[in-house]
Amino acid sequence: MKAFVVTHYGPDGLKAADVPAPSVGPRDVLVDIRAASINPLDKMVRNGEFKQLLKYKRPFVLGHDLSGVITKVGADVRGLEVGDEVYARPRDLRIGAFAEQLAIDADDVALKPSSLSFEEAAAVPLVALAAWQALVDVADVRPGQKVLVHAGAGGLGSTVIQVAKHLGAHVATTAHTKDVDKVRALGAVEVIDYTRQDFTQVVSGYDVVLDSLGAASLEKSLTVLKPGGLAISVVGPPDPAFATQLGQPLLKPVMALLSRKVRRRARKLGVRYSFFFMRASGAQLATLANLYDAGTLRPVLDRAFPFDRTLDAMAYVEQGKAAGKIVVTR
After folding, report:
1. What is the CATH number of domain 126-275?
2. Model confidence over 91-122: pLDDT tens digits?
3. Is residue 327 classed exposed, middle or buried when 0-12, 13-18 and 19+ CB atoms within 10 A define those classes?
């Protein structure tokens, strides 16, 4: 089958290739992939940024988000059938959405929201799971709390705004001038135009900040939290709890060293820091599907590319200009 594989780590490491069709284990479903979406995580994995933590054997098929139709069901799978339209973020070490087919652990799969097209559904799994897990599982956001979301017009930020609103939070976000109306429509009550304003001069006393921009933004974000508030970063640095999540406790000292500066800064300010790396969950995708079908959440897409232009889609995402998710379709 046709696929896009990482042959070596680096910016030029992703190539088109013909690879064997996947084998299907007893707990797997085989999915004919109709659409996949591009995430910043794809670039990070392609470049080898997690190679010490996620031991992929090259060449491997890239891609973390997909929608499609089940064509085969493993012997031990219950609740899913051939012909079901599904969406998924396959678990780490079993990714491979940039392909014609993928065998996925059934626990990572859910029926796709019936109100969404395959293209729309492929844009959802990773960002929706990340938003839900960060705000519900990690931050335990409650009605009336104040949540600041950076880059609210992006693929992740636009979903976090919607989930935070659904949870009853007062939502603020940073955005470009051209996206102010867009993020307000998603549920942001307070919008900081980062081309004209420094968010630290506008907001304060927040319960939670979700940062996807990097070290400089994260350090400033610590200063707008109320005592005991929580800054969550999806781009690092990783903290000791991440080693536990990976099942590699021996890496705790390494993670502690990598995040020492930001954790020390947080302690001095009386706030908390957490690195966040989402996990696959078909059960949570089923919950989220109901929210999409109810109209509580909606996907935010920038544009779609045909499958054979997956490299162009990756390049477009890397330019940092996408106003929503980028999807490749078959």
Report:
1. 3.40.50.720
2. 999 999 999 999 999 999 999 999 999 999 99
3. buried
Q: What kind and span of H or E run contains 127?
A: helix 125-132
CATH number of 2-112+300-329: 1.10.600.10, 3.40.50.10140, 3.90.180.10, 3.40.30.10?
3.90.180.10
For residue 108, how many other CB atoms are within 10 A of its CB? 22
CA 69 from chain centre, in angstroms, equals 22
Residue 104: enclosing H or E segment and its boundaries? strand 101-105
Domain residue extents for the chain: 2-112+300-329, 126-275
pLDDT in tens, 7-64: 999 999 999 999 999 999 999 999 999 999 999 899 999 999 988 888 899 999 999 9
Distance CA 155, CA 123 (A): 8
Handedness of CA 150, 151, 155, 159 (dihedral sign): positive
Angle, helices 125-132/282-293, rounded to nearest 10 degrees: 100
With a cut of 80, say whether residue 244 has pLDDT above it. Answer: yes
> Taking 80 as the threshold, does the pLDDT of residue 134 lie above it?
yes
Whole-number Å distance between alpha carbons of 210 and 329:
30
Phi, psi of 34 (to 5 degrees): -95, -30
**Residue 329 near residue 131, CB atoms below 8 Å:** no
Cβ neighbors of 319 (< 8 A, separation 6 or more) are none
